[in-house]
Design brief:
- The chain is an alpha/beta fold.
- The protein has 2 domains: 2-84, no CATH class; 124-183, no CATH class.
- The chain has helices at 8-13, 19-23, 40-46, 62-74, 94-107, 124-134, 140-147, 163-181, and strands at residues 2-5, 17-18, 51-54, 81-84, 193-194, 197-198.
- The strands form 2 sheets. A 4-stranded parallel sheet has the order 2-1-3-4. A two-stranded antiparallel ribbon has the order 5-6.
- The protein is flat.
C-alpha cells in the first residue's frame, strides 16, 4: 500500500509522504513531471502496489489528482485500488476567504459611473496612436512621434538582460562611432583557454 496526503502533518500521521514529494515537484512550481509511456522505472515502482490511500481528500486539488492519474495510467502493470480518506468538508483557506470578502464588497456597490471621455491628453495624434497601440496596429508614423518624446541623453546606457542583445547593441554603437570619427573598426579575437591550454575546437 502506498500512503499519500496533501500536507506533511497528515502524511506523517499515516506513515506516508506528501503528494508533492511523491510527484517530485515543489508545491508552487507549476512544472509538470515528465512521464513517458513504457517507463520501466515507473512500472517497477508501481508493480507491487495494490492499494493507494490518499488521506485528507478534501484538501487535494483537481490538478494533483490529474497528475496522479497520469502516473498510474502510464504504469501499465499497476492495477490498484484507490482509497480516499478524510472529511468531506474543510475550512475555507485564506484565498477563498478574501474572495468572499471581495464579493461582499462588490455587492454593496449601488452606483456605477462609467467614464467615456478620455482626459489624459488633448493631442489628437497621440490619442490616435494610443488607440492603434491598444489594437496592435501601430504605424511607422507612430514610431516617429514617440521618438519626439524621448527624454534623456543620447549617450545614456541601455539596460538589457541577454548577452546576445548586449553584444548586438555594442557592435552597432562601435560601428556608429567609427563612422562618426572616420575610423575603421578593429576586430580582436580572444583566445580561450582551459587549465592553461588553448581551446582550438569551440565544441570542447
Amino acid at each position: 500500500m502506498r500512503k499519500l496526503a496533501p500536507i506533511g502533518i497528515a502524511a506523517a500521521e499515516i506513515g506516508g509522504m506528501t503528494i508533492h514529494s511523491f510527484l517530485g515537484e515543489q508545491r508552487n512550481s507549476g512544472k509538470p513531471q515528465t512521464i513517458k509511456p513504457g517507463d520501466s522505472k515507473l512500472e517497477k515502482k508501481w508493480r507491487l502496489v495494490e492499494y493507494l490511500l490518499i488521506d485528507e481528500m478534501s484538501m487535494v486539488g483537481l490538478n494533483l489528482l490529474a497528475k496522479l492519474n497520469r502516473i498510474i495510467c502510464s504504469a501499465k502493470h499497476a492495477d490498484l485500488q484507490v482509497l480516499f480518506g478524510g472529511k468531506s468538508g474543510k475550512l475555507p483557506n485564506e484565498k477563498e476567504i478574501q474572495q468572499r470578502a471581495a464579493r461582499s464588497l462588490i455587492l454593496q456597490i449601488s452606483c456605477v459611473v462609467k467614464l467615456t471621455q478620455q482626459m489624459r491628453t488633448e493631442d489628437p495624434r497621440y490619442l490616435q496612436l494610443l488607440e492603434r497601440l491598444r489594437h496592435g496596429q501601430c504605424t511607422y508614423d507612430d514610431y516617429e512621434l514617440l521618438l519626439t518624446r524621448v527624454v534623456g541623453q543620447p549617450s545614456a546606457p541601455i539596460l538589457v538582460f541577454r548577452n546576445e542583445v548586449r553584444t548586438y547593441l555594442n557592435n552597432k554603437a562601435v560601428i556608429y562611432k567609427a563612422t562618426q570619427i572616420g575610423q575603421e573598426p578593429m576586430v580582436c579575437v580572444a583566445q580561450d583557454t582551459c587549465k592553461g591550454k588553448p581551446i582550438d575546437d569551440p565544441t570542447h
